[in-house]
Amino acid sequence: MTAPSRVSDAALRRLERTARSASARAYAPYSRFPVGAAVLAGSGRIYPGCNVENAAYGMCNCAERTAIFSAVAAGEKSVRAVAVYTPTPLPTTPCGACRQVIHEFGPDAVVISVCDSKNRIETRVPALLPGAFGPGDLA
Ligand code: THU
């Protein structure tokens, strides 16, 4: 087994700050729940994301997926860490759909959740999505 890849504390703090500031750009007129996210990609660059809602509610996109899709659109192929900020007293972890999308590009990625208090969660994708189906399962 290989050791989990290490992401520096400084990079994680930067990621958290980016996620917090990205929430200001959320388009969330229906839920009024502005979420921010940030992705540390394989290149070392950080990409922000926010939730983008739609009058057809099923088309709403979470902040985490916005950040990952931006990274991929910029040419990134892997995700080392994801941070998500929610405007809540306690941190929340990414939804099931976002866990699956994070897994696609970062099966061992660090996932950090921050909120409006000092509480935070720091975990990794295998803990959030055990037994995940992924690219390796396709022949
Ligand atoms: N949302 C996110 O963007 N990320 C999460 O981790 C939780 C939920 C969004 C989706 C929707 O726009 C709003 O928050 C309420 O669910």
Describe what is shown at a glance.
The chain has 139 residues and is an alpha+beta fold. The chain has helices at residues 9-22, 63-73, 96-105, 125-128; strands at 36-41, 46-50, 79-85, 110-114, 120-124. The chain is globular.
Structural features, described:
- With 139 residues, the chain is an alpha+beta fold.
- The chain has a single domain, classed as Cytidine Deaminase, domain 2.
- It has four helices and five strands.
- It has helices spanning 9-22, 63-73, 96-105, 125-128; strands at 36-41, 46-50, 79-85, 110-114, 120-124.
- Helix 3 links the parallel strand 3 and strand 4 (110-114).
- It binds tetrahydrodeoxyuridine.
- Residues 28, 31, 33, 35, 51, 53, 60, 62-64, 84, 92, 94-95, 98 line the site of tetrahydrodeoxyuridine.
List keywords for this structure.
single chain; 139 residues; alpha+beta; Cytidine Deaminase, domain 2; 5-stranded mixed β-sheet; 5 strands; 20% strand; globular; binds tetrahydrodeoxyuridine
Lay out the secondary structure:
Elements: H1 9-22, E1 36-41, E2 46-50, H2 63-73, E3 79-85, H3 96-105, E4 110-114, E5 120-124, H4 125-128
Parallel strand pairs: 3-4
Antiparallel strand pairs: 1-2, 1-3, 4-5
The chain binds tetrahydrodeoxyuridine.
Residues 28, 31, 33, 35, 51, 53, 60, 62-64, 84, 92, 94-95, 98 line the site of tetrahydrodeoxyuridine.
- Percentage of residues in helical conformation: 25-40%
Radius of gyration of CA atoms, rounded to a whole number: 14 Å
The CATH top-level class label:
Alpha Beta
By CATH's scheme, which homologous superfamily applies?
A: Cytidine Deaminase, domain 2
Oligomeric state, counting identical vs distinct chains: single chain
Q: Bound small molecules, which ones? A: tetrahydrodeoxyuridine
- How much of the sequence is in beta strands? 15-25%
**What would CATH call the architecture?**
3-Layer(aba) Sandwich
Main pleated-sheet profile: 5 strands, mixed
- Total strands: 5
Alpha-beta classification: alpha+beta
Order of helices and strands: HEEHEHEEH
- Chain-averaged pLDDT: 97
